[in-house]
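Supplementary Data S3. Sequence and structure tokens for construct A.
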Amino acid sequence: MGKSTLLKLLAWRKIPVPKNIDVLLVEQEVIGDDKTALQAVVSANEELVKLREEVSLLQKSTFAAEGENNGGDDEDDAGERLAELYDKLQLMGSDAAESQASKILAGLGFTKDMQGRPTRSFSGGWRMRISLARALFVQPTLLLLDEPTNHLDLRAVLWLEEYLCRWKKTVVVVSHDRDFLNTVCNDVIHLHDQKLDSYRGNFNDFEVGYEQRRKETNKKFEIYNKQMKAAKRSGSRVQQEKVRDRAKFAAAKETAKNKGKGKVDEDQAPPEAPKKWRDYSVEFHFPEPTELTPPLLQLIEVSFSYPNRDDFKLSNVDVGIDMGTRVAIVGPNGAGKSTLLNLLAGDLVPSEGEVRRSQKLRIGRYSQHFVDLLTMDETPVQYLLYLHPDQEGLSKQEAVRGKLGKFGLPSHNHLTPIAKLSGGQKARVVFTSISMSKPHILLLDEPTNHLDMQSIDALGDALDEFTGGVVLVSHDSRLISRVCEDEEKSEIWVVEDGTVTSYPGTFEEYKEELQREIKAEVDDD
């Protein structure tokens, strides 16, 4: 709808921004080179780097001059300039720069060892974190963040929430994470019907205000519609024009009142007659799975390690999933959450231990990897018909299009090559395919990354009504809370320190524990 475009226009100053305000948009991953992650963050402060380089050159030239006994005025000038530079560096907090950069990187999940690695050795997701760390380190007056939580794990999201709550400057964020918006924002700008509407308060406050505005708009439309129908029945064109003009004048008066003028501006084109509020809605559904006798899937004393990777191993993994089971897998990035999902799916074979699967078990799998593996030159309809040829009804193509429509893919995209679809549209094709495979268990690895808020809610509703098993890896607190609402059927698996343990409390308790740790860390800073 144009949210990312709006941020770019601000960053490029196509929307006027006062000259004294420095603007920084975080949208692209840092370019990988031989700089370490820590150096990449510190180098974001270009002024600091220039001053340090000048100090270094002056020190070398002064040292060389002393060695050649060429003192005198030049040496005095260099000494004065050095003293001036030292004062500037002190004011900029140069001594604490590396320490501050290190704390930001640690908050975003970088260990000490990772901070010393060259940026080229990191994947795209980690490079995005370095970009975010650079922005937080520089502290621009206006910080623009486009979906900052997409590449973060739950702990890093909670750390960023805490960090931004203490941010003294202005942040404009585009995000689909409700909890994140609720915690961080005190104003909401809603892009609706190609207009920007402002709401005071956090996301919960916005929802109340939005609903009120929607009801008021629809009420005005109903009154206008009723009057127009009556005028049309009378057959009088004059009467119809009167109704239309009255509605336009009322709308213009309200616009003027909202702008604080109190009277209609004659030069301004009058607003249009009332229209019905157009809501965007989407529904996801997974079919009712056939009953299977438990256990559906078990990992018994499983261990796994990758060849040539001494730094990673999962050991003594003992977990199981049945119909109705709800599992959230949590833990730091790189600890093995995706590896555990791959072991459950059968994509990886354990080094030790046993995997037991029900013979007729069908698994529905979602991850970014699967989105990237779509056949890009095919259309969604061609792709799905190839994977699921057994469609019922007169037209197999229409049956597939009906399913794509239910997952919110617009009809004009059904016959578009997949390569031309956005990330969110590709995700819908994968979800449609999962639904068509009629799974007993859903294994979902960060399913919200390319979904808008309404689609995440629709996914939550679909998982609520799904009677099979659900295993979820996500940084979206609200989705995890929804999936793990029923304490009797829910489990929290913590992947950390090379093994998988079951957390003894609820997800909310786990989250509160993390928040306490993070708050203590940030307080120390």
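Construct B, processed identically:
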Amino acid sequence: MTKPTVDQLLEAAVSAVPNGEIRPGQQQMATAIAESQRTGEHLLAQAGTGTGKSLAYLAPALLSDGPVVVSTATLALQSQLISTDLPRLAEAVSEVLGRTPKFAVFKGRHHYLCPAKIGADDEDTLFDTGEEDSGWLGQRSRLGKDIGRLTEWASDTDTGDRDDLDPGVSDTAWRQMSTSARDCVGVSNCRWGAECFAERARDRARAADIIVTNHALLSIDLIHNRSILPEHKLLIIDEAHELADRTTSAARAELSASSLDRLSRRSTKICGNDISGRLAEAADLLGVAVSDSPNTRLLELPEALNQALTLLEAVCREAVSGIGGVSPDSADSMARNQLKSQLTEAQETAQRCLIDADSDVRWCEGDGRGRSLVVAPLSVAGLLGEELFAGRTVVATSATLTLGGTFDAVAGSLGLRKENEQTGEDRPSGTNTGTMWRSLDVGSPFDYRKQGILYVAAHLPRPTASGLSDAAAEELVKLVSALGGRALGLFSSRRAADTAAEVLRERTDLPILLQGDETLPLLVKKFKADPSSVLLGVMSLWQGVDVPGDACQLVIVDRLPFPRPDEPLSAARSAAADAAGGSGFAAVSVPHAAIRLAQGVGRLIRTTGDKGVAAVLDPRLHTARSYGPYLKKTLPPLWYTTDADKVHAALGRLGAQPVAVGDLSHGHRHVVMSSQSTNH
């Protein structure tokens, strides 16, 4: 059978979508990806919300010689791909392709039951929850019931995947019956290796045409020299603007008194009382040292912290040497291997903190006994530049890849040179061995200027505190009251969100939903269902909430989301940029704010029928000449104004219209008349 073209695959894929037709930009993106596969040239493709970029990259992916890996930042997108997009695609293209393509999800080991844990009979290990009150009888009883359920389920399940367990169990119980990549002893060293659910899942993934994973696992694969994911020639990174941050998180390490206490207890049987006692001593020293250390970057280690780390490094090295090689046939091989792995990790983290390398940043965070010493890389651009692009073609896509009108900031975070700095020597031929890349912005199917307003409250005072000023609170009430609900409030701090909720509850009759009062999925469900409600929250709402239709017609941002000046990583990166002769604020803080602001404002227009107002209560977006235009270029091109009266009037007209509410994803909507609230 003749190999199909990308046009044929895309046409077949789109035909399976309800009311399916190829959207503006979809064809352009699919064609560009097919061309990148042919030339080996990397592609950064910005595709606005509503483009249908999932099918735009999945269709050409089927042209690849061998498996394709697709990585996402959020569980929501991963679930959409696995449960909706890929099953629909596989069925739709089977006739054109001459076969039905296979797809699989590639998850971390901790998502699966561990047969070695199921077969263990060490009660001390099973009930070591790591929590201070783990010995409480009621908790142990509930934990025992959950573990019993998991033990029975292990005999019935084919996958061992936690997502297939309904109803679920507590996180504590699941941790007892699963294992992490760090603690896994490896198939060859495990007597239950042939029964391993994680290995079975990986075998299925290796046989698939399209493998879906997440940025966390992709980052771990990069850190471990590409030894985890199956070999592939095409990698598609969706939500690519998040990859650098996820890689930073994967490369960070931490130590706490509570974690070292657990390590001390676990080491007693295998390493003896001397090692266990010295680990407990190191835990006590570390606990006191971190409690006395500030939350800011530690340019020099306090003497107490230095002593604790020195003791920890020495005792861990001695313990690892004492354990030595472990025979897979020994009765306690799993326990010995896992303890050895944990001791090695603690030793390496202590060494990393003691070395004081310019490439790492150290700080303390948390509260009480759980307070930790943290170390993380100053930058992951070098790691990504070396590991991400070699030997395969990479397509990075997102609705937010251009900052200030260029791809340079995101490209730099991924370890790529600016487009105008590339040379002919980088250009690959056939299999990609260079870092030559090109960019593509396919735009958006939305008519932003007709569908929405970007309102900047330029008359308000510049924000100075972490809370919400009286003037900003007054403007918030006017905006929400003019529309009569249907508002999503995005705040830079918990304090500001709490203040906003208090003010709106006092001065309106609207249902106010505040993040933290209930689970986020339940709050979003209530927000979608009630056209008079207002949902308020902090950073996770800026990125993870998708409420198309009339339920959300007003998005309010309290202030520009610059990182806190005392946030250790951002402060260290800014200082490094300043030291190199640049501007830390321009190189670090402004791009950070641009991405977050674009994500927040992007909550407003989700379909071609959406209308509304994005209101920014921070006048600096209008008045700051140095970075204001840069931030505005990053945002969707909504109709721009600073005229409060015009915006309040527009919201009033919008609020007077009937609204359609309900579960938009399943097509169930009903129309109700809105009722505007008035100020008391």
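Residues 123-127, 129-137, 424-433, 662-680 have pLDDT under 50 and may be disordered. DSSP finds 27 helices and 19 strands in the chain.
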